[in-house]
Specification:
Keywords: Cytoplasm, mRNA processing, mRNA splicing, Phosphoprotein, Ribonucleoprotein, RNA-binding. Its main location: cytoplasm. It is found in: Cytoplasm; Cytoplasm, P-body. The protein is α+β, with helices and mostly antiparallel strands. It has two domains: 92 residues, Roll (SH3 type barrels); 42 residues. Helix content is 22%, strand content 35%. It has a six-stranded mixed sheet with strand order 5-1-2-3-4-6.
Length: 136
């Protein structure tokens, strides 16, 4: 039966349905949920989804429920090995405790990326993010 499905980007997702997946989005968010459906554009439907944030060697999850993800926003999609999931060497903490630290990390990262983009534009001739010629 699998040989009847053409091997395309979305066709290759058929084996991932009903499995626990990690999705990393273009904006940096990391979502963990059960892949329930997809279409020819690799738009995804995740069920029982949680968003995971990290700071140092800690992490926190917040439940977001059913999540519809536009395919063009997916950077990475990978299956989570349920046998190895509990062996992650990170410490879980409460979301309200970690959220301010995570937001501070993201602000610092955004500032660094802005400085880097400015240097690349001024000194190396790269285009600005979201500017003319940008693929996104």
């Amino acid at each position: 039966m699998d040989s009847l499905i053409p091997f395309t980007t979305s066709g290759s997702l058929v084996d991932c349905v009903d499995k626990k997946m990690l999705v990393i989005l273009r904006d940096g968010r990391k979502l963990i949920g059960v892949l329930r459906s997809y279409d020819q554009f690799a738009n995804l439907v995740l069920e029982d989804t949680t968003e995971r944030i990290f700071h140092g060697s800690t992490y926190a999850d917040v439940r977001v429920g059913v999540f519809l993800i536009r395919g063009e926003n997916v950077v990475l999609l990978g299956e989570i090995d349920l046998d190895l999931e509990d062996e992650v060497p990170l410490k879980p903490v409460s979301y309200p405790l970690l959220e301010p630290l995570f937001k501070q990390d993201m602000t610092e990262r955004k500032n660094r990326e802005g400085v880097k983009a400015q240097i690349l534009f001024e000194q190396k001739g790269f285009c600005r993010e979201g500017g003319e010629g940008d693929g996104y």
